[in-house]
Write a sequence for this structure.
């Protein structure tokens, strides 16, 4: 699985990540939360080798990531970026099947697998022939997830996959994704700002603050015994909708 | 008709640089019976009529004769003769001394013959007419005022426009070219002491002015059919100011062995055509619209007492054949240069995108190439590549680089960072990313760069006409030189149509090259 060992990262003179140890538990979902700019995306990008650590090591199944092996390792990791990152020149199904086709899968096998993914994420099959610009934001997000799941990777990294979705779609997609993760026993790391989402997905929640891990554990633990004032403030900053019951009907 | 315009003089200078470097390639002499003889002519009536005569005379001598009519200007005709692509064509002594052998200081006929012999070319004696500049007036007016030679004009001072034209005074109106040439009116007026006001006007307007009487004296070519048509009288150049452009035949020396009968027949033209005769022949063709083959045949049968068969009228066929040849050559220039440019420029654009340190060098380099004037590029390339298609192709190639490199780079560079990352995290290597994601996404921009290059190429390829590359430039250059709009049109119109066709073709190609998803996305955003 993926493991960061004393990994630190600076951009120019600002240290974005202090030396950090972090290990994704196999078969479980790890949630990264924290204020904007605290280094969540940076951690995911380190895990998949988009950026290299200044210090420390990133290991995949015990092997350090190197420029030579990173390409093959990436194929065993599904990565979902915020807006889906779909290629506008390819149809939905070609976006999802791109890597499989490149790796030489037969066309019928690709089609079958893409349709399986569409059913799994509940994307209407007729949307598969369309181009990204002809799909809704939620559909594009599903496609991004389908593409990440296509080769059945053991590890899935998701960077705010529910951003910009309306609450209904988000609610359904959260439900679907969790079912997929649990039933397929995936090792998942998901970045979110949303405390509810964190609790819903997370076997383990890691709260980051300015480039370091502040507290980790079950969400309940964080809520019941916050490690410091920062954790308390971050948790309490979540606002639940207040419902005006009087006067309705 | 044989006076070099600016373009032609420039071209001749270019050619002179080269002719030294270009070695004469002797034609493979295929000794068969009957001998095969190819006659050439330049792209104007007089030359074509004489070419037809040579062809008919060669046929009459038993040769398989062929007329490569309207080859273009002096450069092309002479280099074709030197290379053995044609065996003979009519030329003028003035053109030989000033243009073709301009760098060899030849004066006498012996000098000319010696210089030509070094290239395996022989020259006949003069045919009898001089096609040079002259001043002309309406015959009736000249006779009335007793003007026979240019010096006589001094007795009849020209009008001064500013003080209002007195009735008895002569009005001088000259073609713009004649007004501007050093050896035109500026030199002539000094030589003869004619310090009069003269106005410049279009050559064709000058003849109309003569007819209506708004001008009285103009410049003419001594064998112009208009001299006959407008009942004009060329004034004698009594100070011998204008150079002589006596017509002679040039032919390849090996014909003396290969087809002595043909040469003997041709030499019957020596001294056989005087100016009034040539004027009449030109008038038959240009004014009566009789095709050149018939004009030539009737002359041979009438004046030389021969019995040649008048060939069928092939004027239109000739226009079409030339159009086809020019189109093929033009397409060749454009396609070869464009393909080479694509092969080089697309990788350069990719390199500029992938290799930031080289970016400035590549984009700056091709940018500088674009700013070089095309004539300078040609001048530079000529000594390296010789005369003909290659320097033109090389120049077009250089000009095509910028739009393609720039658009390739821009198309790749404007791919959003998250999509580039998205391809990387999928586990695609650099090469797969390029082919599967980056190039398809940049395809519209790359294609539009190629389209720009192609359309520019179609227009720019016409400079090839200056150095014998053929194509639509040839009629444009020839027509410009001869001040003949119909010849210019034969190049300008097809060139414009080809540019439009190329434009349309690329718009069509976009449907096949640019992925549908991009076209849909673009349609939505505009
Ligand atoms: N390529 C880069 N160059 C310089 N600074 C960077 C770069 N990438 C990220 N940073 C900085 O590193 C810090 C952490 O960025 P990161 O994207 O990891 O934040 P985040 O926790 O994902 O925030 P958000 O919740 O807003 O997405 C930020 O201050 C950001 O400005
Ligand atoms: Mg982020």
């Amino acid at each position: 699985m993926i493991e960061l060992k004393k990994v630190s990262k600076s951009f120019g003179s600002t240290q974005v990540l202090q030396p950090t140890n972090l290990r994704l538990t196999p078969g479980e979902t790890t949630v990264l939360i924290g204020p904007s700019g605290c280094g969540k995306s940076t951690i995911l990008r380190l895990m998949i080798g988009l950026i290299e650590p200044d210090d420390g090591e990133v290991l995949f199944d015990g092997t350090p990531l190197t420029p030579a092996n990173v390409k093959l390792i990436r194929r065993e990791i599904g990565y979902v970026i915020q807006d889906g990152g779909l290629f506008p020149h390819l149809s939905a199904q070609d976006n999802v099947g791109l890597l499989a086709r490149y790796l030489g899968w037969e066309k019928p096998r690709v089609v079958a697998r893409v349709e399986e993914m569409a059913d799994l994420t509940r994307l209407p099959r007729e949307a598969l022939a369309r181009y990204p610009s002809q799909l809704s934001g939620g559909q594009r997000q599903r496609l991004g997830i389908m593409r990440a799941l296509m080769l059945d990777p053991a590890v899935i990294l998701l960077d705010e996959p529910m951003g910009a979705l309306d609450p209904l779609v988000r609610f359904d997609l959260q439900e679907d994704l969790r079912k997929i993760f649990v039933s397929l026993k995936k090792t998942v790391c998901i970045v979110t700002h949303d405390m509810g989402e964190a609790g819903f997905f997370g076997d383990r929640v890691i709260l980051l603050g300015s480039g370091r891990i502040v507290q980790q554990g079950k969400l309940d633990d964080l809520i019941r015994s916050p490690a410091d004032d920062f954790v308390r403030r971050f948790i309490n900053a979540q606002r639940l909708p207040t419902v005006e019951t009087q006067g309705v009907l | 008709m044989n006076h070099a315009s600016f373009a032609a003089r420039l071209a001749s200078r270019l050619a002179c640089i080269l002719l030294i470097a270009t070695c004469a390639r002797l034609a493979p002499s295929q000794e068969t019976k009957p001998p095969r003889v190819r006659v050439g002519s330049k792209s104007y009536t007089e030359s074509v009529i004489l070419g037809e005569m040579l062809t008919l005379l060669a046929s009459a001598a038993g040769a398989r004769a062929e007329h490569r009519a309207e080859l273009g200007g002096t450069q092309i005709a002479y280099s074709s003769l030197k290379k053995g692509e044609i065996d003979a064509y009519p030329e003028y002594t003035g053109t030989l001394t000033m243009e073709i052998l301009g760098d060899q200081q030849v004066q006498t006929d012996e000098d000319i013959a010696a210089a030509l012999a070094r290239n395996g070319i022989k020259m006949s004696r003069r045919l009898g007419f001089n096609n040079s500049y002259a001043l002309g007036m309406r015959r009736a007016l000249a006779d009335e005022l007793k003007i026979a030679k240019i010096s006589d004009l001094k007795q009849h001072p020209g009008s001064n426009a500013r003080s209002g034209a007195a009735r008895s005074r002569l009005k001088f109106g000259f073609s713009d070219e004649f007004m501007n040439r050093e050896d035109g009116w500026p030199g002539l007026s000094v030589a003869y002491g004619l310090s009069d006001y003269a106005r410049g006007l279009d050559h064709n307007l000058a003849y109309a002015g003569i007819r209506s009487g708004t001008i009285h004296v103009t410049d003419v070519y001594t064998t112009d059919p208009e001299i006959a048509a407008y009942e004009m009288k060329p004034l004698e150049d009594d100070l011998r100011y204008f150079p002589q452009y006596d017509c002679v035949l040039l032919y390849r020396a090996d014909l003396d062995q290969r087809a002595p009968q043909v040469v003997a027949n041709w030499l019957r033209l020596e001294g056989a055509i005087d100016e009034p005769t040539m004027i009449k022949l030109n008038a038959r063709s240009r004014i009566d619209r009789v095709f050149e083959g018939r004009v030539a045949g009737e002359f041979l049968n009438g004046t030389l007492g021969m019995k040649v068969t008048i060939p069928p009228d092939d004027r239109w066929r000739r226009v079409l054949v030339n159009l086809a040849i020019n189109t093929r050559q033009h397409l060749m220039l454009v396609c070869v240069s464009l393909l080479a440019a694509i092969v080089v420029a697309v990788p350069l654009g990719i390199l500029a995108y992938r290799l930031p340190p080289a970016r400035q060098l590549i984009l700056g380099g091709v940018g500088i190439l674009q700013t070089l004037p095309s004539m300078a590029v040609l001048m530079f390339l000529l000594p390296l590549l010789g005369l003909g298609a290659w320097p033109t192709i090389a120049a077009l190639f250089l000009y095509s680089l910028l739009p393609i490199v720039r658009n390739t780079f821009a198309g790749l560079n404007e791919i959003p960072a998250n999509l580039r990352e998205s391809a990387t995290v999928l586990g695609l290597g650099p090469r797969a990313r390029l082919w599967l994601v980056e190039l398809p996404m940049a395809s519209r921009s790359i294609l539009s760069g190629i389209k720009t290059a192609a359309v520019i190429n179609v227009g720019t390829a016409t400079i090839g006409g200056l150095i014998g590359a053929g194509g639509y430039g040839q009629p444009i250059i020839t027509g410009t030189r001869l001040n003949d709009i119909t010849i210019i049109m034969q190049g300008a119109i097809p060139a414009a149509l080809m540019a439009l066709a190329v434009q349309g073709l690329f718009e069509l190609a976009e449907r096949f090259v640019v992925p549908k998803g991009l076209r849909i996305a673009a349609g939505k955003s505009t």
Summary: The longest strand of chain A covers residues 2-11. Chain A has a mean pLDDT of 90.
